[in-house]
## 1
Amino acid sequence: MLGGLDFDVIQRSFLYLFKEGMSFTLTLTLLAMTAGIVFGTMLALMRLSSFGPLAAIAGGYVNVMRATPLVLVIFWFYFLVPWIGGWLIGASEPIKVGAFVSSLVTFIMFEAAYYCEIMRAGIQSIPRGQVSAGLALGLNYAQTMANIVLPQAFRNMLPVLLTQSIILFQDTSLVYVLSITDFLGAASKVAQRDGRLVEMYLFVAVVYFIICLVMSQYVRRLQLRLAVIR
Amino acid sequence: MKYNWNWGIFWQQSPEGQGTYFQTLIWGLGWTLATALIAWAIALAVGSIVGVLRTTPNRWAVRLGNAYVELFRNIPLLVQMFLWFFVVPELVPKAWGDWLKQLPNSSFYTAVVCLGFYTSARVAEQVRAGILSLPRGQRMAGTALGLTSAQTYRYVLLPMAYRIIMPPLTSEFLNIIKNSAVALTIGLLELTARARSMQEFSFQVFEAFTAATLIYIAVNIVVVFGMRRLERKVAVPGFIGSAAAPLPGH
């Protein structure tokens, strides 16, 4: 069964897999996570705004994103970003956008919808009295949010935000549909070239498994620690 | 910079020979729903068993259940799809592998199995949470009444647990519909794949993707309303519906 396998191919392509592939995957994950959380928090504030149209726009955006498969969203932005870019700079035709920028925009916009829902729950978990107290102290809305509500909401939701980020890390493998050389894409290229699909895909699965397992165990410990302090 | 809109494109014949573009999209929806529904049946069955295992007093059963969930949750869905499609047929005995490879619609069966097991781990997590959220006294009461362990689960714990986890199960069901789009990578011609090929043949990018997005949203709405009705119908009088906590997911 395992007799005809040649795990040498992993050693031969090791440097390529990690230097080209994994570094792309990690860069994409970290950038999309950071920008996604910032943008998601803004969306959450919009959704909770007392100004109706603003709440409706944010709510509509989040619901549409959450109802659409990520693969379709990747295709959407792959074709949409050049048009938006061209429109922004007033070019006469769609601009050329690299695969990295396109996928980065996709993941920021897509994950922001999910981070938004997490941050919304986090903001709603803060007792209303704290907002009133902030306003009574003479802070304005922005100050109350920035100094009182958001830090606590962020802290309460940290484990959930991190779990979502682990999912984001796994999801970035879907850039495969754009033939981008992320970790899976790199492994897939080597696999096709050398005819070693079994070895390469098993290796990819093991690497993803170890990284995600370590991260999720860390999140679990963090959750316990935060729960005790609160 | 001008994009040539052509909404009439849906009524033109598609070169794939399956009628108009609109019809090919509807066929795609059919494959999406078929994949999602059968995979959901697997996910519910396997997920319930694993979820129950993780709440039994047997330590080894709990460990086994935990390992199962960790295995399926920590590998990206796309990688799992490739494992089922490219790797499994090579690792099973050769005769079986050959049979698997020449199977017609093999990408459909692969997608069903892959999505089923992938989602089962997430269902197991919910089932476990549902059972653990019940007061300890319920299990004890079952035992005190002389029910066996299996009977306690069947008549006391699970009926309540399923009702409690109905909202998160709804979102898992929505996830399985969306996740079936990943199967386009192994050649399943579901809705997203049809929209993509429509874009390739007709160059009407935004019409094709808009149509697919609208169909997904419509399916989403139907499922949410249906599940809400079901929830109301099976609600036990005297219990407030469970509050849905935000779940990380996609």
Note: The first helix of chain A runs from residue 8 to 47.
## 2
Amino acid sequence: MSDTAHIEVTVNGRHRSLDVAVHHSLLDALRDDLRLTGAKECCLVGECGACTVIMDGRTVDSCLVLAVEADGAEITTVEGLSPDGVLTPLQQAFLDRGAAQCGFCIPGQLMSAEAFLRDTPNPTREAVEEAIAGNLCRCGGYEQILDAILVAAAAGRP
Amino acid sequence: MHTFAYLRPDTVAEAVAILEAHGPDARILAGGTDLVIRLRDGSATPAVVVDLKRIAALAPGIREEAGRLAISATTVMTDISADPLVRRHFGALADAASVVGSVQIRNRATLAGNICNASPAADTAPALLVYDATVVAEGPAGSRRIPIDAFFVRSGVTTLARGELVTAIELPIPAARRGAVHERRTRRRGHDLASVTVCCCVDQTRVTRLAYGSVGPRPVLFTDDTGTLANPSADPAERTAILERMFAGASPSARSMRASPEYRLAMLRVLGARALAGAIERLAAGSD
């Protein structure tokens, strides 16, 4: 038996009306209810960042947000970065720099980088390191990921 | 995840009534960066979760009033570390808030949640201790103000009574100039819990306040009002003796996996001396 709650959210620009179990996370709602499987389930304790999405303009670990807390919020997932299928300069830089190895962490890395570059157009490498400190890459592709984010920043748009 | 009833009161009075009715079966949800983990791993099994984020009186905000800076209960670390008033008057708190977890955690984690969890490793606790913060709590008997040093008991335990919740944390804006520094040791750079966390504040009247955490069941504060610590050219043996008395309050657990007690005690001395030197420097430079 579990309580449910009705929530209204805007996900990737589209209004969604959902009934969610109150003990389900935003990540559960995105993946299981909305079938948006870009955000990944991994550590479930807010350390790896694979589930990172942008909520009301700020990155969150969606595994640590209850779905019901997102009621009224605006969410962007990795699927929302290029709705028309044309990669953003940031995504293209990840491809060009070989930043994606196994790829599992990349949706989270992209969302952290996207939110960071919106606020910090001309970052130092050190600032980028801090910005993605909450996104682990088990392939150890950090150098390529940092390069890609700096390339996108230099190109002037996330 | 453990199931529970989710309640989203509109007023502090409603929240207090719920907390009073359910006692230990209710848990407060602010940022959720600790609670949701505990709901998932089963170490917290409340019947009721009370979300404070729709209570207008607790909305995120930092405001100056009557010589104090008041930080509301749902204000997150990102906003605290970026706030111009916090940075101007309470620089070490801004620094401490800026190293809590990762960006994603700081975007959700609240200062009130940090102190209510009463983790011995809470990054913001030493800064709140040296800045002489007051916790404003609302409960069935009304509002009361708790000095931060009388708030922490041990890991996970505070002096909040049944039905009470923290509505704000207040910091007195100082009359005298001062310098303060926050230092921490972690296993890795980036995102980690502190193995030792220290804050030191020296003011114009030569009072030194030093607080540290993650080396015992609760963060602790020591004050030197002899002027000896604040004076870099005082007798080094005397200064060391005072610092040693301060560090004697540390009793790190041998069970923690982050660092051994020996390492923590050694690093406490290093970071304590560093924070003291930094605080004196900042005071001399005229920047808090």
Note: Chain B touches chain A through 28 residues (CB under 8 Å).
